[in-house]
Amino acid sequence: MTEWISVKDRLPDFYDGVLVYDNCGYENTVSIACRRKGSNGGWIWDSQMVYPEDVVNVTHWMPLPKPPEVTP
Length: 72
Known about the structure:
The chain is mainly β. The chain contains no helices and 5 strands. The protein has strands at residues 5-6, 18-23, 28-37, 43-46, 58-63. Strands 1-5-2-3-4 form a 5-stranded antiparallel β-sheet, with no helix packed on it. The radius of gyration is 13 Å and the shape is globular.
């Protein structure tokens, strides 16, 4: 089983989809997101599961599990 990785320890590569834990204060969420370069030259978390501006306090992340094998 994969463990959560603190963003203080390391960050995923840009554009790699990962699970993120966001501790936004009023509601903790888990979503699928990736790190991408922002318009200010820094980087931001981007998620299509929630509004991007809601993914602002990511504390931990983990790689996505491998997809299931599909049989015909």
